[in-house]
């Protein structure tokens, strides 16, 4: 795995954003919930804390969720990433700050609208993934009753389940029960 630390962080943050309405309902229904999400993921810069900002983040979430499903279609993904880079007017610059003291890229000005900054950073991270030929790391959770997405950053790309809904454990328990049932009473 050779993604830079800020690319990995952007990918995990994007994944978490997409999943905020895919497990246990809407988790970003209120401005305060968005505020908590941003703090949890170390987002710096402007925060309006109003409904317009929240709506823009919801729209970005929908767009990113749709992009995740294009992981098997490289050409289509490239077109979407280019569109997102253009729409967000991505403009890379290096910075470091208390939340992330290693040098890393920001893709927009700290005073640009939040959804634009989030979109630009995600687009740039996805551009890294495409350039490394690693789009297959963008996955959907393998649990049949789960719509969550995941970014598989494991060495051998072996992850199958999201980390939002305890899906891996649930599937292991289900498989164990099935084996026990097939084996019949002891
Ligand atoms: Zn930063
Ligand atoms: Zn899941």
Automatic annotation (TrEMBL):
Concerning SUPFAM superfamilies, the annotation shows:
Jann2411-like (SSF160904)
The record ties this protein, via Pfam families, to: ABATE (PF07336), zf-CGNR (PF11706)
Q: Which Gene3D superfamilies does the annotation name?
A: Jann2411-like domain
| Cleavable signal peptide | none
**Cross-referenced InterPro entries, in alphabetical order?**
ABATE, ABATE_dom_sf, Znf_CGNR
What protein name applies here?
Answer: RNA-binding protein
What is the scientific name of the source organism? Answer: Mycolicibacterium fallax
Output the lineage of the source organism.
Bacteria, Bacillati, Actinomycetota, Actinomycetes, Mycobacteriales
